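Narrative of activities, Objective 1.

The group set out to show that a structural description can be obtained from nothing but a protein's sequence at a throughput compatible with the screening campaign. Below is one input-output pair from the validation batch, recorded exactly as produced.
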Amino acid sequence: MQQNIARLTLRKEATRNAYNRMGRFYDLLTGRLERKHMDEGLQMLGISGGETILEVGFGAGHAIVAMSRSAGGSGKVYGIDISDRMVEIAGHRVNRAKMANRVMLQRGDAVELPYKDAFFDAIFMSFTLELFDPLEMSAVLQHCRRVLKDDGRICVLSLSKQREDLENEGFMPRMYMLLHRALPRYIDCKPIAVRKILEDAGFRTIDVVDGTICGLPVTIVSAYKN
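Output recorded for this entry:
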């Protein structure tokens, strides 16, 4: 048990350091590729004026700003990210959009979300859940259930897989997994069976949309807490 905890601690520190280093180039590396799917996920989440929203792993803050616009002046948007640099970058974006009075960002670990029970109307995660160790995904989603209101909803975007053996899914998934194994700190998202993971955690699926990024399967799942 102690060995597992030590391994996860070292992995998180490596992830934090990697995103701190990538911060200034993050939009160039992933922004345009992910934006279409992010917009689709936000549409599926369907934020209304006055709602209180959480984004787990907000990165450069594009979705944070979009969600704040949808929630309006009476809404609140919270964000948590493991990277100090991403908090800084997203904070600048929020300030430029003149939304600092209704957006709260902090560095932290989603395995232990520091928010009250039944606090949020909705939670958004874009290419974040698959960054966690399989041992931690369940803990992250149980915390999401805890901080969601009883009628709360969640939308998760992730690289996805249809088979256990990704290397039989096609050329691009095979190449991606080779890069993931060679450069795990930078090619860090490992495709997951996102719908099954959400349903195993107790969420009820509302809608599922499949797509691709550069030939890699992407799945967007929206679901209710109950």
